Amino acid sequence: MKRVLGWVCGALLALVAAFWCVTATADLALSAGVYGTPGRYEVDTCHDTNSSGKNSRYDCYGDFTPDGGTADDAVYVHLEDTGRDYPDGSGFDARQGIEPETVQRVGFWGVVGELWQVAVCVVVLAVLAYQAIKPRGKDRRKEAHRREPSRRQKAADRVGYVVVVAIPVGVLSWIAMVAEPTP
User: Fold this and answer.
1) Which of 36, 121, 136, 141 could disulfide-pair with 21, CB 3.0 to 4.6 Å?
2) Distance between the two ends of the chain, CA-based, in angstroms?
3) 121, 81, 132: which is closest to 104 by C-alpha?
4) Going by C-beta distance under 8 Å and a sequence separation of 6 or more, which residues neighbour residue 107?
């Protein structure tokens, strides 16, 4: 029963992490300029929607103007949970996604702001894969008497390397995002 519950919980966590990974990767690709309409986002106003004051959650309102466009081409966009309180009247280079309300900051700071989410997803998925692949119980005792690790153990070790790389990438990206200078 315990093993079945573990597999069910692991499968649910994998589905959530995979969904988050897909959306975070799409945002990362937009920030990196892989797709979307280039332009500039001009902030009208930002405000903290979290009334408790403990954790800030900034929503911003402003206009996205495509490159080469005029004020008539501008689209009014509400950005939710921007992660920072942009000063009124400030602006930044951005890309608009397939949906008009999807706007992401581009360049180094835009990529850094999205990279940590992808790294966290990769870590969660890799840890779950490691748990599913690594030898269990009797297999592990047999493994101790062999000179050469099994193919299953080698595969689990390779997945472990992904975790070892993704954790520092995520941590460094998150630190850089927090330390980002306000435009």
Assistant:
1) 121
2) 54
3) 81
4) 31, 93
Give dist(CA 103, CA 147) in Å, integer.
55
User: For residue 46, what are the β-bridge partners?
Assistant: 60
Q: Which two tokens stand for residue 20?
A: 């988050």
Q: Are the C-beta atoms of 121 and 128 separated by less than 8 Å?
A: no
Q: Which two tokens stand for residue 14?
A: 């994998």
What CA–CA distance (Å, rounded) separates 162 from 118?
13
Q: How do strand 103-105 and strand 58-66 relate by DSSP bridges? A: unpaired
pLDDT per residue as tens digits for the range 129-168: 988 888 776 655 555 566 787 888 888 888 888 888 889 8
Structure tokens at 31: 């920030």
